[in-house]
Amino acid sequence: MAAQFFNRIGQIGLGVAVAGGVINSALYNVDGGHRAVIFDRFAGVKNQVVGEGTHFFIPWIQRPIIFDIRSRPRNVPVVTGSKDLQNVNITLRILFRPIPDQLPRVYTTLGVDYDERVLPSITTEVLKAVVVSCGGIDVKTCLGAQFDAGELITQREIVSQKVSEDLMERASQFGVILDDISIVSQGFPPASFGESYQMKLIPGPACPSIKFASLPRTESSGFVLFLQTHLTFGKEFTQAVELKQVAQQDAEKARFLVEKAEQQKKAAVISAEGDAQAAILLAKSFGDAGEGLVELRRIEAAEDIAYQLSRSRQVAYLPAGQNVLLSMPNV
């Protein structure tokens, strides 16, 4: 009787374990910041996007594909030439994320590694087209450049606008949009262009000059981009800029020295004119007063000398017209 009871318990436990394994194999979890797309072996990719949480699927028939919908960074460096034949290193920093509603289309057309397939090609093409090409002409057939190295800094808003326009148009073919574009400049030191420069493209009310500031988000979009551009120039260009600034400082110093010498010359002329005017006035006074003015000055000088001698302890006063040695007593 006891053996039958334990056998019954074992059968029940085995059945529960098998049922639990089957149920567990039909469950999958979608973590926070992720979405899932269901691939059905008979129906293909379903248009439904599964949100966060635990969900059921049919094992061996359906398969969940998990997408990370959080923003992720990617740097795309491009080395191109400017209008003045300077090498310019432009790094386009992209914070991208897929739009949840478009995940089935993104997976069907691009796959899970959509960023590897789209971002490097379109960013390189657009950046070279903006910096190297001649407005609408293909990069391969254009012999000129739109901007020189200095204009990439002084006209960075125009450069950013052209990048956003061309990248928007090119990426729309793959279901990609640009979102929140504005221009933020960081690290533009006046002494050197060789350091890193940033232009962050985020359209919105803060930047009304960008015509894409009010563009609505399209339903055919695949994923969102945030742009941040870094510009660096070649070593030779950096040295040339530094030498130019040193020469400008030397020229300013020489100009200051010339102005200082001219001011000193004017001061000497004014001082000489003052001395000459004083001499003329003295000569006129002597002519009017005769020798009386000279005697007055002589008396004033004698009084000053007597006052100074009276304050000195090492000065002895002797009677005038007497010999001191003769008046000494006999020893």
Unreliable stretches (pLDDT < 50, length at least 5) are 133-145, 180-221, 225-230
- End-to-end Cα distance: 165 Å
How much strand content do the residues show? 15-25%
- What is the 3D form? elongated
What's the multimeric state?
A: single chain
| Radius of gyration, CA atoms, in whole angstroms | 46 Å
How many helices does DSSP assign? 7
- Helical content stands at 40-55%
Q: Biggest β-sheet: count, sense, barrel?
A: 6 strands, mixed
Number of strands: 11
Q: Secondary-structure element sequence?
A: HEEEEEEEHHHHEEEEHH
Counted up, domains total 3
InterPro entries: Band_7, Band_7/SPFH_dom_sf, Prohibitin
Domain Band: 26-201
Main location: mitochondrion
Family: Belongs to the prohibitin family.
Architecture blueprint of SSEs:
Layout: H1 2-25, E1 27-30, E2 34-40, E3 44-50, E4 53-56, E5 62-68, E6 72-81, E7 87-98, H2 103-109, H3 114-131, H4 151-154, H5 156-171, E8 176-178, E9 184-186, E10 197-201, E11 223-233, H6 235-289, H7 292-310
Parallel strand pairs: 8-11
Antiparallel strand pairs: 1-4, 2-3, 2-5, 6-7, 7-11, 9-10, 10-11
Provide an overview of this structure.
One of its GO terms (cellular component) is mitochondrial inner membrane. This protein has seven helices and eleven strands. The chain is of the alpha+beta class. It folds into three domains: 12-68, no CATH class; 72-233; 245-310. Strands 6, 7, 8, 9, 10 and 11 form a six-stranded mixed beta sheet that branches. The chain has a three-stranded antiparallel beta sheet with strand order 3-2-5, covered by helices on one side. A hairpin with a 5-residue loop joins strand 6 and strand 7 (87-98).
